[in-house]
Amino acid sequence: MTSTLDQPAPMRFSAAPSLSGAVTVPGDKSISHRSLMLSALAVGESRVEGLLEGEDVLATAAAMRAMGAQIIRDDDGIWHIHGVGVGGLLQPETALDMGNSGTSTRLLMGLLASHDLTATFTGDASLSKRPMARVTQPLALMGASFTSSPGDRLPLTMRGACPAVPLDYRLPVASAQVKSAILLAGLNTSGITRVVEPIPTRDHSERMLKGFGANLSVEVEADGTRIITLMGEAELKPQQIVVPGDPSSAAFPMVAALIVPGSRITIANVGLNATRAGLVDLLREMGGDIVIENPREVGGEPVGDLVITASALHGVEPDPARAPSMIDEYPVAFIAAALAQGRSIFRGLEELRVKESDRIATMATGLRAIGVTVEELEDGLIIEGSGGQPLAGGGPIATKLDHRIAMSFAIAGLVSRDGVEIDDMRPVETSFPGFVPLLKTLGALS
Ligand code: S3P
What we know:
The structure is a single chain. The chain is an alpha+beta fold and 446 residues long. Strands 2-15-17-16 form a four-stranded mixed beta sheet. Strands 4-5-3-14 form a four-stranded mixed beta sheet, covered by helices on one side. It has a four-stranded mixed beta sheet with strand order 6-7-9-8. The chain is built from twelve helices and 22 strands. Helix 2 (55-66) packs parallel to helix 3 and helix 9 (330-339) runs parallel beside helix 10. The longest helix is centred in the N-terminal third of the chain and has 13 residues, at 29-41. Bound molecules: shikimate-3-phosphate. Shikimate-3-phosphate (S3P) binds next to helix 5.
């Protein structure tokens, strides 16, 4: 995928007056990917409302189309997907361009691993640096074969196995992408595919697979280990899906409202699945005033409206076991810590080094550039907070094709003396179209 603009789009974010108003954020990225993939495997028409129309999800849509699904967006923004049935995906004629999207890549590898086809996956410079062995290794045990670039990276060509062999796999890394890849491969594999998850990760795949009628069960052991069992081959029935607002996108206005003095905002319709809501808990522990109103269930996922009031935050030392529930929110949590009173110690976060950028190094460099005292550890960061005093500001921040780095430092700019310059805002389109207009609606930008 190529971004709409060929040239970097730098932008400066400056000290903001208090934020106010009510907004919604775009649909959940994880749920959007999965809704397209499972709809494409159901026989008949599924309907998806609130789909995230960001570049990552559009890469998934393009790939599913290239393999035979019919996917149409109507004028009301509803997506209609005519699936081909489990096992019915067609050989793509050209390479599948995954753009910046690790989730598209890893989940699709799983989905295709039990199909009789060959697919080549390509991606942008960021995605081409990310490790793929975590999915190719278990999928190879199911019978798929891979020719990858050095270091198990993209471009990579996969030959699916049909019939594939069911797998019983204990996750060596806490990753919802790996879990989901194996479960998706299990759909077209006869027998029992089992994934043992010692540390729980986001469970959207399990919820949605059940919703589509797959024979899947989850058992939780006394120590919290989850055992997910899927009986293949599955038959999926078309569904009507409503995608909640993405908590990982809500994280940015949430932190902005806490750190810009005098702010009070509402973010309506935010997904609050416990496997995703770790940042809300962390910010509350830091002293953040976040109230959840109208808790409800939408499309099998817990949802609520968040009312956030500016608060004096204090430093924290979160338990690394909670990392998966807020794995994508650390960059903006580091910004909250930079404005808190006292020291915050974040450890056990080695997974951040293999995200869209090395988020430990990218954040450490950026935080230093805007005047924050920070120590980089192999597995985390130690951040000295300003106690609510504006950060010095500066930049340009090198975002390294990482949307969440760009948005995190944009939020930091709202509480800075000299403003914060972001080198390139284009990556934001991967997950949060409308980020800058949303900040304008809240009164953060003139
Ligand atoms: C995702 C899982 C997480 C997360 C990513 C989306 C998913 O990755 O960081 O943005 O939708 O399954 P890992 O599985 O690598 O933890």
